[in-house]
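Obj: model holo form, ligand = magnesium ion.
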Amino acid sequence: MNDAVLSVIGVRKEYAVGSGKTHGTLKALGGIDLNLNRGEILALVGESGSGKSTLAKILVGSLSATAGNVHVDSTPVTTNRDRATSRRIQMVFQDPYSSLNPRITVGGMLAELLKFHRVVPRNQIRAESIRLLNVVGLNEDALTAYPSQFSGGQRQRLAIARALAPRPEILIADEPVSALDVSVQATILELFSQLQRDLGISILFIAHNLSVVQHLSQRIAVMYLGRIVEVAETRELFANPKHPYTRALIDSIPRMSAGAVNDAFEVDGEPPSPINLPSGCRFSPRCKLATPACRSIDPALTAVGPNHAAACIKADQLEPYVFASRTTAATNGTPTTNTPTKEALR
Ligand SMILES: Nc1ncnc2c1ncn2[C@@H]1O[C@H](COP(=O)(O)OP(=O)(O)O)[C@@H](O)[C@H]1O
Ligand SMILES: [Mg+2]
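Output (holo structure tokens):
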């Protein structure tokens, strides 16, 4: 039995947008159900605008949901969290430049957090700060320095040390490598693996493309326009994708050149506006397999195998997935000119 440390149950988020005649409701999250299992890295992957950051903010309590619940260890948590609850879920942001206060030294930043969360007695704050820096691959010298004195990768390490200071059980990492140089991305991904291995921490790792998380996460949840459309173990998702959108995302991987694991998805067509969602399946306007039924039935996320769920009424009828080239440029370091098949969308 999987043991969920964090459960998202029917979470919806709507924003009121525009005014007067142009006002409308933007449905950023249209009912999210998702579990993060204890000790796992679960990837949450989706195009820009699919609602990933909105969900992340709700999980850490900085944004309230329109409906639904978030549970930590089966206990509901809301936006008004006491210190003990806020300690348990910490966030790492995409941009390590703007997420650190430039006027406070690293030692000052860590000390403030360690005091606030009463992690260690006051006389152990320095030792604990050094321990945190060592965990993220930095040393004691960093204590007296300011964020501006570090490179992008080092700043992301500092941001991770800050998130670890309260000794959270859960880390929410919102595209933590998307703003980094390609050469640095792999080292930060390795750090997340190490945190999982050494600290047993549970991590929701958000990314906008699949190649970043292919070798990092144990499971992947694919998001499309405010919904989870497929969730499975990583190997199963790549071997046996059941949603046409997931297939298109996997097919788009070889188009990325060797160094560009950070490129965005390339799926034909633009996603519809979350202010004016299509009827039925929200992927149907871009799906080459869509039938009239797809334009009227809004499919729920349904089990399609052990630990595998997909939201597509045709999931059981899809041809087995055949990927044109299993050796992708993104993983073997050679740019490719091969044009991927997109049979799933044809
Ligand atoms: N404060 C806000 N007011 C109105 N719309 C918002 C707000 N924040 C996000 N959105 C919209 O919600 C949708 C999801 O955004 P976001 O969660 O940032 O997506 P992602 O992180 O996947 O790129 C987008 O359409 C975005 O424009
Ligand atoms: Mg985002």
